[in-house]
Structures are given as C-alpha cells and as structure tokens.
Amino acid sequence: MSDHAPKETTPEPEDSTAERKMQFLFTLRSRGVTDARTLTAMEKVDRGPFVRGHFAGHAYDDTPLPISCGQTISQPSVVGLMTQALKVEPRDKVLEIGTGSGYQAAILSYLARRVYTVDRHPRLVSEAAEIFRKLDLTNITALAADGSFGLPDQAPFDRILVTAAAEDPPGPLLAQLKMGGIMVLPVGQSDAVQSLIRVTKTETGFDYDELSPVRFVPLLEGLERDE
Ligand code: SAH
C-alpha cells in the first residue's frame, strides 16, 4: 500500500456521522424500537450534546452513562421503548418526571405539542434548559420540582413519562392524567430489577400493561439543593 492510500480512503466526517447514525438506528430496531415516529424523532435528536465530559465519546453507544449530580442518562433503546409505549400524539401535552440530561424530553418535543419536564436537581434542570435553548426546542418547559406531586398548575396531561422508579404509580400522577391518557413508568424496589408498566386511564379506572424489565434510579422525595 502506498503512503497516500490511507489518506484517500479516510472517510469524510459526514460519512462517519451518517454511518454512526445508521448503526445507532439499527441497534434501536434490533432491540425492539420499531415505531416509525419514535425512530424519526431519535434520528433527529443528537445524543452528543446531552452527554458531557469524558463520556462524550460513548454518546452513540446503547448504554446508560453518568451525568452531573450522580444521575444517569438512560440507555437509548430504553428511551426508545418508553417513547413508543407512550403512544404520543402530535397535539399532546406531555409531562416527564426526571429531566436528567434532557435527552428524553428533547425526543418528546418532536412528537408532542408541549413538553413539561421536572427534576428534583435544579442544576440538571438549568443545564438541560440551556441545551434546549441552543437546539431551539421551544416547546419544552423545564422546572425544578418534586415530580411525585406532578405539576398541578399544568394538569391534566395526555401523557406522563416517569424516568425514575417508584414502588407504585404515585397517586397525584394518576390524578393528573386526562381520561384516555397514558402513563409509562418503571415500578419496583430501587435496588432490584424493576418493571416498565403502562397505565391507561379509562372511564372505569386504570388498565395496566407490564412491558419489560428495566433498571432506573429511584424516585426520591423533595428538592435537592445543589448550589
Ligand atoms: N430522562 C433522563 C434520565 C433520568 S435519570 C434523561 O433523558 O437523561 C432520573 C432522574 O430522575 C434524575 O435526574 C433524578 O434527579 C430525577 N428524580 C428522581 N426523583 C425525582 C422526583 N421526585 N422528582 C423529580 N425528579 C426526580
């Protein structure tokens, strides 16, 4: 091989980005994320800006990663499975509990009319809000709050997504769902494998579907005071 050969075959950065994206979407599909709208939204939202520090090189791996405040950005395939289970409609008002990095909220912002996202860590909320501003995702409102109580001022919601595990679906969240509304959340003990469930509010009560085993950080009480 001549000295010049490797240079000539080095892919343009655009090609490697396209290839990485294709691989990312292929992995999502192979892990059960098949809903076309979900895949399109996940193609649009680059996970890179939501992964900071020395884990940035792993942004396109299908793995959870550490973020500030000892929290984690979820595994992309789990984000995809939760998003498709939520069956978001274009006119929906959605509440997410557990902003974390903001990645999940950014995906929801492409699928819904309005997204409210809350986290008990004010610092995570302000970091995520800054990314939403930079990406011009103007239909997301990020607030520091204890999400166990929902967001009474903006209720009711068409869809609620909880990205931290509670032992049972919190009562205030069930109350803040519209009739026909859907909530997806992990339930179970925080130190064990939890179940992802979907709750649908009906005229006669709630329907429950068990979806898959997952593992999330626990839903904790109260606001954190991180500077
Ligand atoms: N959806 C996030 C990942 C969430 S990690 C993403 O896309 O990156 C779970 C988050 O839930 C953490 O940031 C944690 O601070 C938050 N959390 C835990 N208990 C909470 C509560 N009661 N109210 C609001 N947020 C809570």
Which parts are unreliable, with pLDDT below 50 for 5 consecutive residues or more?
A: none
**Biggest β-sheet: count, sense, barrel?**
7 strands, mixed
Q: Which sequence of SSEs, written as H and E, runs from N to C? A: HHHEEHEHEHEEHEEE
Q: Classify the helix fraction into a percent range.
A: 25-40%
Strand order of the largest sheet: 5-4-3-6-7-8-9
In short:
The protein is of the alpha/beta class.
Structure description:
There is one protein chain. By secondary structure, the chain is α/β, with parallel strands linked by helices. Helix content is 31%, strand content 25%. It has 7 helices and 9 strands; from the N terminus they run H-H-H-E-E-H-E-H-E-H-E-E-H-E-E-E. The protein has helices spanning 5-9, 13-30, 36-44, 76-86, 103-111, 122-134, 171-175, and strands spanning 65-66, 72-73, 93-97, 114-119, 140-144, 157-162, 177-187, 194-202, 205-214. The strands form 2 sheets. It has a 7-stranded mixed beta sheet. It has a two-stranded antiparallel sheet with strand order 1-2. Helix 3 (36-44) packs across helix 5 (103-111). The longest helix has 18 residues, at 13-30. It starts with a helix and ends in a 13-residue tail after the last strand. The mean pLDDT is 92.
